[in-house]
Amino acid sequence: MRAAYYEANGAARAVLRVGDIATPQAGPGEVRVKLATSGVNPSDVKARQGSRKIAWPQLIPQSDGAGVIDQVGDGVAKSRIGERVWVWNGQWKRPFGTAAEYIALPTDMAVKLPDKVSFEAGACLGIPAMTAYHAIVLAGAGKGTTLLVAGGAGSVGQYIIQFAKAAGCTVLTTVSSPEKAAIAREAGADHTIDYKRDNVGERVMELTGKRGVDAVIEMDIAANARLLPSVLRPKGSVIIYGTGGPEAAIPASFCLVNSIRLQFFLVYELDATERARAVAAINAALAQGTLVNRVAQPIYALADIVAAHEAVERGTVGNVIVTM
Q1: In whole numbers, what is the pLDDT of the chain averaged over residues?
Q2: Neighbours of 113 (CB within 10 A)
Q3: What's the distance, Cα to Cα, between the start and end of the chain in Å?
Q4: How far apart are CA 213 and CA 204, in angstroms?
Q5: Going from the N-terminus, what domains does the chain have, and what CATH number goes with each?
Q6: Which of 2, 25, 149, 303 has the largest count of CB atoms under 10 Å?
Q7: Which value, to the nearest 10 degrees, does the dihedral of the CA atoms of residues 198, 203, 207, 211 take?
Q8: pLDDT per residue over 245-260, tens digit each?
Q9: d(CA 99, CA 62)
């Protein structure tokens, strides 16, 4: 099969290759998916760059994808053959991800994709949508809850806004340009705050009647922890799914005096119950046609995997997709 791979960490143009490698076979309890699409996420790019040192002689990148099951292993119902699916954690703690024509993985990691949902949309779900749904669960989001979402125009941010609005929340979000403000509003944000032009704390207090938000959902705690005292109400929560640096300066006195809860999580490590809850919510929204999946343009061919990774590095709006 054709696949993209790398054998050392480094820049995309220096290490990514496309070539022929052995086609995987479905083992016991596994399915093989003939992939139509693969999603490129920031964590895939960072892993290739070296945030996770390569642990195998050869690594096929990327965890998200979608396609059709064409083979099942022992213990898996043959009725799954021909099923349209989206996959998650394709490359997490495994050397063979979704930037390939085929992937073999445990049967529960291939989730049925509603017929009306495209393979391009299916490749958006594993990391961004799961992160978003679990974040609002941890935030206790519900009717009357006010959230501040960092980076509302990002892939995860847009899903957070959609799930939060569906739960009845008021959503404030930070953005970096008028264009990104428009994208966040399209996702359903009630208020956008341009952190390059506005004082975020002052705007949050204006918009909340000086109360502060109930929870912050944060994509980069290392960069934004300093904002917490100016935006968060007493006994509020900070739900953290990412950081731009290995350490963060937390406003400890504010958090102590105000009984602030800091909750970190890594989407790759959800337990079975958390994963099942997120999968059910995502597929329900897909079936209802209420989940908007923003696929970035252009869509890249597998041969253009380098350009796809570089598009993520540039901060392309939407989910960067590679087709097989």
Answers
A1: 97
A2: 23
A3: 10
A4: 8
A5: 2-124+293-323 (3.90.180.10), 128-268 (3.40.50.720)
A6: 149
A7: 160
A8: 999 999 999 999 999 9
A9: 6
CA distance 266 to 199: 30
290 closest CA partner among 142, 163, 147: 163
The two tokens of residue 271 are 């337990």
Predicted pLDDT at 81: 98
User: What pTM, to 2 d.p., does this model score?
Assistant: 0.96
User: What average pLDDT does range 101-130 have in this prediction?
Assistant: 97
- Return the amino acid letter for 161: I
CB 2 within 8 A of CB 18: yes
What does 124-193 look like in DSSP terms, one character per residue? TIIIIIHHHHHHHHHTT--TT-EEEES-TTSHHHHHHHHHHHHTT-EEEEEESSHHHHHHHHHHT-SEEE
What is the distance between the alpha carbons of residues 247 and 243, in angstroms, rounded to a whole number? 8
Q: Is 218 exposed, middle or buried (0-12, 13-18, 19+ CB in 10 A)?
A: buried
For the chain, where are the alpha helices, taking DSSP H only?
A: 12-15, 42-49, 119-122, 130-138, 155-166, 178-187, 200-207, 221-224, 228-231, 252-257, 272-288, 305-313
Give the pLDDT of residue 239: 98
User: What does the DSSP 8-state code read for residue 198?
Assistant: S
pLDDT on residue 250: 97
Neighbours of 236 (CB within 10 A): 22
Dump pLDDT digits (tens) for 84-95. 999 999 999 999
β-pairing verdict for 170-175 and 191-194:
parallel
Do residues 78 and 98 touch, judged by C-beta distance below 8 A?
no
